[in-house]
Each structure stands twice: as structure tokens, then as C-alpha cells.
Amino acid sequence: MALITILKKTEYTLPESLLADAPEWFIDIISVRVTNVHAPHIRPEEIPEIDKILLGKRDHDQWFHDVYNEDKTPLENLQSQFYDGDDYGISFHRIEHIFELTFEDFEVAKAMLKWDIFYRVLIQHLHNTRNQHKALKNEVEVQSYGKRIDAVVRQRNISLDILDIIPLGDLKFDLHWFTANGAIDFVKKLVWEVTASDTILKTAALEIPLLTGHGSHTDRKVSEIQRLLLLNFEGHIRKHDSNPGILILCFEKKRMYSEILSENVI
User: Fold this and answer.
1) For 161-181, how does the pLDDT look when each residue is reduced to its tens digit (9 = 90+)?
2) CA-to-CA distance for 116 and 105, rounded, in angstroms?
3) Which of 123, 152, 221, 234 could potentially form a cystine with 40 if both were Cys, beta carbons 3.0 to 4.6 Å apart?
4) What pLDDT digit, counting tens, does each position of 194-213 carry?
5) 139 touches 167 (CB < 8 A)
6) Exposure of 263 by Cβ count < 10 A (0-12 exposed, 13-18 middle, 19+ buried)?
7) InterPro entries from the xrefs (predicted)?
8) How many CA atoms lie within 13 A of 181 on its CB side?
């Protein structure tokens, strides 16, 4: 059975207050349930704000108009439709990763990519609001919105509860837009889940890519998340050989008890 599949077109189970004035694109996304893809928490009053953000995106129209070009591969069609190079956009690499997670099922990948639009515009709204509270020195709200941001970014990634059923080559995580503390906590939990696993994760030598970006949108031109991860996980994380926006989380191969016994057999 595929790891991620469309379950069904569904009747809306969200509160009527959330759907009363919801835009068409919002309804289009939440009306398709996808396994292992979960709806983030959103307040009714936030829907007009995320709608405004989406309508301000240069290519938003093409994301919801499905036109298949027979001269392109399924992956190329998805990349043509959904690529967004803006600050809260999605890369060709991320689109390819989603396609691989769905075992190259075009329709399921398309549904996932639409859900990803929802995640990204909500994350952008939450960061905007958090920054406003930062400027006003409302620390309680800053902390509250930080927790919400981290929760949505976690949902945007593979759930750490299902690592054992993910093909090892598909284990990669996008840490863009986490708060700094949220990224560190996420990687700590990832390390714990891998080391506590009783399946192949327990013994495999793993190199798990962590997409952090490289701070191109910051004054320092350095990713704060990347800097802190290298500091906190020294010896276990290294920079990617050729891509400055990726870190590699490393796990050495662990020896099985049977292997140790066999070495001692005379």
C-alpha cells in the first residue's frame, strides 16, 4: 500500500464558522483528504489574511488550474504548475521529494502540493503576526505564535511517528520557517526516533538531509537555524558537500548483537 494516498473527496468537517466566507481555493484544498497529511489549526479570522497573502502571489492562478502538458513528464508538469521562487515558496527539489513520497502518483502528489500551499501561506501569516508582536515587545504573543509556527512546519514535514515505513532514501526534512528553538527541538526528536527504532533505522548508516536555506534573506547572509544546529549537534551534523542550504544529519551503522557474536566464534 502506498505511504501517502488520497482517501476520498470529503464533506467538510470543519466548523461552519471557518467555512462560511472561505475562498474557493481554500475549499478546494481541504475537500481532499490525504493520508498522513493533516489540516493545521487555523482561526476563522485568519482566513481573510491568508487569502490576501495568496492573492498577492504572482503565480497563484496557475496553482489551481490543472493543465497537463503531454510533452512533459509528470514531475515536470508538477514543477511547472507549483514552483514558487518567493520567500515562502517551494523549490523544484521539494516538489520532486513530494512526488517520490507518493511513489510517483501524479494525482496524490498534486493534492499534497495544494495542501503545501495552505501550509506556506499560513506560516507566512503567522510569521508576519509574530514579527508585529516582536516590534511591540509582546513577549507572550511572540512565544504563542512561535509555537504555532513550529507546529505547522512540523506538519509540513514527514511525521516522526512514521519514520519506520519511509524508504531510507526519502528521509529528508525541510526546516525552513521553523523558529530557531523549534528547529533544534525537531532535530532532537528526530535523533531520538531514529536511535530508539527497532527496525532498520536502528542499524542502518544514515545521512539525512536537512534543508535549512543559507540565509540569503537575512542581513548576515547566514542561516541562524543552520548555525545553531551545527553548534548543538557538533560531530553529528555536517554541511552538504555542494549545496550551502543543506545540512546532513549523520548516523553511524550500529552493529547487531549477532554480528558481534559471529566475530567471536572460533
Assistant:
1) 988 888 888 999 999 999 999
2) 16
3) 152
4) 988 888 776 778 999 999 98
5) no
6) exposed
7) Smr_dom_sf (IPR036063)
8) 8
CB 64 within 8 A of CB 89: no
Tell me the C-alpha distance between 146 and 160, whole Å.
20
Grid cell locating 247: 545540512
Is the separation of the CB atoms in 106 and 69 below 8 Å?
A: no
Q: What is the mean pLDDT of the chain?
A: 87
Element of type H or E holding 34: strand 32-34
Q: In the predicted model, what is the mean pLDDT of residues 17-25?
A: 80
pLDDT over 70 percentage in the chain: 84
Q: Residue 6: beta bridge partners?
A: 34
d(CA 46, CA 107): 29
Q: For the chain, which domains are there?
A: 1-156 (no CATH), 163-266 (3.30.1370.110)
* DSSP bridge partners of 248: 209, 238
Say what the pLDDT of residue 15 is: 64
